[in-house]
Specification:
The complex is a heterodimer. By secondary structure, chain A is an alpha+beta fold. Chain A has eleven helices and ten strands. Chain A has three domains: 7-116, Butyryl-Coa Dehydrogenase, subunit A, domain 1 (Orthogonal Bundle), CATH 1.10.540.10; 121-218, Butyryl-CoA Dehydrogenase, subunit A, domain 2 (Beta Barrel); 221-365, Butyryl-CoA Dehydrogenase, subunit A, domain 3 (Up-down Bundle). Chain A has helices spanning 7-23, 26-34, 41-49, 68-80, 89-101, 104-116, 220-255, 267-295, 301-326, 336-347, 354-365; strands at 121-124, 140-144, 147-158, 165-171, 177-183, 189-193, 201-211, 216-217, 257-258, 261-262. In chain A, β6 and β7 form a beta hairpin. In chain A, α7 runs antiparallel to α8 (267-295). Chain A is globular. Chain A starts with 6 loop residues before the first helix and ends in a 5-residue tail after the last helix. By secondary structure, chain B is of the alpha+beta class. Chain B folds into three domains: 3-100, Orthogonal Bundle (Butyryl-Coa Dehydrogenase, subunit A, domain 1); 134-239, Butyryl-CoA Dehydrogenase, subunit A, domain 2; 256-398, Butyryl-CoA Dehydrogenase, subunit A, domain 3 (Up-down Bundle), CATH 1.20.140.10. Chain B is globular and about 75 Å long. Chain B starts with 9 loop residues before the first helix and ends with a helix. The chains are: A alpha+beta, B alpha+beta.
């Protein structure tokens, strides 16, 4: 048992902190979220230059072959922002899906490009808005001559607007699920930005969009395998977000004077801060343990889903508790809380709601006898 | 980062085997005994005597206080050895700090820190060897969690102090050998600077005990009526009692953490996996699965924070708010689990089952959840302490503005 960061991890942490300080100051992030700017090419390139888009990729694909925990250390700092962009969806999730099941040629073509930032590969997995999992896939992958065509519509594709490629979960003619990689600018693909109390979501339509058979691979298990390795990194990102919320909320309780004393003297306000703290530490510790499981080659399938459930629920509830403390001023889009509030809502259903992920955890630990 | 509790060096692996074999051999006679919780519900002397004898044997080996100095009865061992004892005892249903009902784990650090050499020589070995049961006399009827408002008086008379007062929420269904008592030695003095801490024999004339039959089990009201106490039992000096108590209250309030796994969760899962008379299993019921999932998430957070606190405490790297946060969360989880048990099991959650040790029994947990929200300070007190640790509303600038 040892809960210290290594020297290398501390260096990574410092580098990521410095990066956020110079490239993504809090007041700037506030404006990005107000304007729903979900992709920042300049920052994207700088992050790619630091190797943060292919941290976990094997060296054979131009990556750094880093451990899950190391990667989590960087994502925790990005989450403090929270930095908008496809850092997780392309740099982690898409990379893991490709690693888990793509044919070698496709890996060779896309993985180094993900790592250097020239390709932004975004998974488009579920079709309906309120469900996730194999049963949520309805987009069709139909046989057409020697190849396939995609037919259907994926809504709420996170970071879809920034994509150069999509990894699409679709049903073959026999009902089985496959993953199809398709370029964003391929004929028949259209991307429509979705407005609302979210950020970076797009509807991606496929109208008889042709797919090269060499770019079709895997099944839903490929996605599940990738999720096991990716979800804890998202957990680290949310840990950073909750850390930031906890710190600025606590600080505010000493500055804000109401009825003649700092509001932190009121126990109701203290309760809000403690709730945030508890969500933060619940998220941090299940995330840390799951990252450690990944790094030590243990079965992390159930833990990864648990991690997403705890993190997403915590982010959502943590924001609400912080809103109670900040009240009116916290609802201004120029307030740091608003960036988190928007993102917490967008990430709640992302890759399955907390309820979905809890049930997935149970199904892994205790398979149902039907 | 390493969450492994059993990544043993060869030396520690050998120690684990030694401990494991020893416990298997020495706990054999207790196989049929149902182990009770810290608040014993059952007046079972056979169980108590078995546990006391086991503690004496552990104490002889220095295994009750493994990291303390040998000269006072400790084991002179490392934290890694302690981890082994903690985990192996937990696997057999017993906490290292409470093999039988005694609060020695709180008194030993206090005496070690504040006692004179003579007091250490006299008081420590019997506690570390497991020879004496120690009770804590802290809470008073009027004060509840606010223990600094202590009204139990200790007045100096020559070489003695004379103690008068009443304490509640004390001990267990049997008898104590020694008591730690927080008293007021200067009623007109400043709060926190008017208290004194005594470690006294439990059978001094003038001490009487009355059972309290509580939701969670048996405790006592203790009356101190002109109890004459030689001054050598005062630890840490007159009016220094708050500091002495603070030294171990950190431990009582979760600061020491835990390496235990939840026996309750293990039992609930096993119960839900059993085939019922109608051929179904509870674990296949979607509603039960959702309850169980929530329980697992809570129990896992509690487990992880327990490890975190244990590590910080033993590595001597202080953590700002870890103790009260864990303590608060632990009790909230117990409360929520009590509710979940009823939702999952219905009436079965209201009837004790002999096959489970008390800590893992459903009926016990249903009572213990709502009943045990105050031990060591209420949930509200926990949150006040966390807020202070976080410094909420306490910056200088804020205060200045408030005064205008």
């Amino acid at each position: 048992m040892d809960f210290r960061l290594t020297d290398d991890q501390r260096m990574l942490q410092d580098a990521a902190r410095d990066f956020m300080k110079t490239e993504a100051r809090s007041d700037q992030i506030t404006i990005w979220y107000e304007q729903k700017t979900f992709h920042l090419p300049e920052i994207w390139e700088k992050a790619a230059g630091l190797g943060w888009l292919g941290m976990r990729l094997p060296e054979a694909y131009g990556g750094a072959g880093m451990g899950a925990f190391d990667c989590g250390v960087v994502f925790e700092e990005l989450g403090r922002g929270p930095l908008p962009g496809a850092y997780f969806s392309s740099g982690v999730l898409a990379a893991e899906i490709l690693l888990a099941g793509a044919p070698e040629a496709l890996k060779q073509r896309l993985l180094p490009a993900i790592g250097d930032g020239s390709a932004i590969v975004v998974p488009a997995l579920a079709d309906p808005s309120n469900r996730f999992g194999a049963e949520s896939v309805t987009t069709r992958l139909e046989k057409a001559g020697a190849g396939f065509v995609l037919e259907g519509s994926k809504r709420y594709v996170q970071d879809g607007g920034a994509a150069t490629h999509f990894l699409v979960a679709a049903r073959r003619d026999d009902g089985r699920i496959a993953l199809a990689c398709i370029a964003r600018n391929a004929p028949g693909v259209s991307v429509c930005h979705q407005q609302g109390f979210l950020i970076g979501a797009s509807e991606v339509r496929f109208e008889r969009a042709a797919v090269d058979p060499a770019d079709v691979f895997g099944d839903w298990n490929t996605v599940e395998d990738a999720l096991t390795r990716a979800l804890p990194i998202l957990g680290a990102f949310i840990t950073g977000a909750l850390q930031e919320i906890s710190e600025f909320t606590n600080a505010y309780t000493s500055e804000r004077i109401v009825y003649g004393q700092p509001i932190g003297r009121y126990q109701r306000v203290q309760d809000n801060c403690i709730e945030i703290l508890n969500h933060l530490d619940a998220t941090r510790w299940i995330t840390w343990e799951t990252l450690w499981k990944l790094d030590t080659g243990q079965d992390a399938r159930a833990a990864a889903r648990q991690c997403k459930a705890v993190a997403s629920e915590g982010y959502f509830q943590g924001c609400n508790q912080s809103h109670m403390v900040f009240a009116g001023p916290g609802t201004d889009y120029r307030h740091p809380l608003m960036a988190h509030s928007v993102l917490a809502h967008a990430l709640y259903p992302y890759l399955g709601s907390p309820l979905h992920n809890k049930r997935a955890m149970m199904d892994i630990r205790f398979p149902r006898k039907v | 980062m390493d969450f492994n509790l059993q990544a043993d060096t060869p030396e520690i692996a050998a120690f684990r085997k030694e401990v494991s074999d020893w416990l298997d051999a020495n706990m054999k006679e207790g196989e049929h005994i149902r182990l009770t919780g810290i608040w014993s519900t059952v007046h079972d002397d056979a169980e108590y005597l078995f546990r006391r004898r086991l503690a004496e044997k552990l104490g002889r080996k220095g295994w009750l206080f493994p990291t303390y100095a040998k000269e006072h009865g400790g084991g002179g061992l490392t934290t890694a050895h302690r981890n082994v004892l903690e985990v192996e005892l937990d696997r057999r249903g017993l906490p290292l700090g409470n093999v039988f009902y005694t609060r020695a784990e709180l008194v030993v650090p206090a005496v070690t820190m504040f006692g004179t050499d003579e007091q250490k020589r006299e008081f420590l070995p019997p506690m570390m060897r497991g020879d004496v049961a120690v009770w804590q006399l802290l809470t008073e009827p009027h004060g509840g969690s606010d223990i600094a408002t202590c009204r139990t008086r200790a007045i100096r008379e020559g070489d003695d102090y004379v103690i008068n007062g009443q304490k509640i929420m004390v001990g267990h269904h049997t008898k104590a050998d020694w008591l730690m008592v927080l008293t007021n030695t200067a009623p007109e003095g400043k709060r926190h600077e008017n208290l004194s801490w005594f470690y006294i024999p439990a059978d001094l004339p003038g001490i009487s005990y009355t059972h309290l039959n509580l939701m969670m089990g048996v405790k006592n009201a203790v009356y101190l009526d002109n109890v004459r106490v030689p001054a050598k039992y005062l630890v840490g000096g007159e009016n220094n009692g708050w500091k002495v108590a603070s030294a171990y209250l950190v431990l009582e309030q979760g600061g020491g953490g835990s390496l235990g796994e939840s026996t309750l969760l293990r039992n609930v899962v096993a119960r839900c996996e059993e085939v019922q008379p109608d051929g179904t299993r509870l674990i296949d019921d979607p509603d039960v699965r959702d309850q169980l999932a929530d329980m697992m998430l809570d129990v896992d957070t509690e487990r992880l924070w327990g490890m975190r606190n244990y590590w910080h405490y033993n590595e001597k790297t202080p953590h700002r708010y870890a103790g009260p946060q864990y303590f608060f969360f632990q009790r909230m989880v117990r409360l929520r689990n009590a509710e979940r048990l009823q939702k999952m099991l219905g009436y079965d959650a209201l009837v004790p089952e002999e096959r489970y040790d008390e800590l893992g029994d459903f009926e016990y947990n249903v009572r213990y959840g709502p009943g045990m929200m105050h031990g060591g300070g209420t949930l509200h007190t926990d949150r006040i302490i966390i807020s202070r640790c976080l410094g909420l509303g306490r910056n200088v600038e804020g205060k200045r503005q408030a005064k205008g």
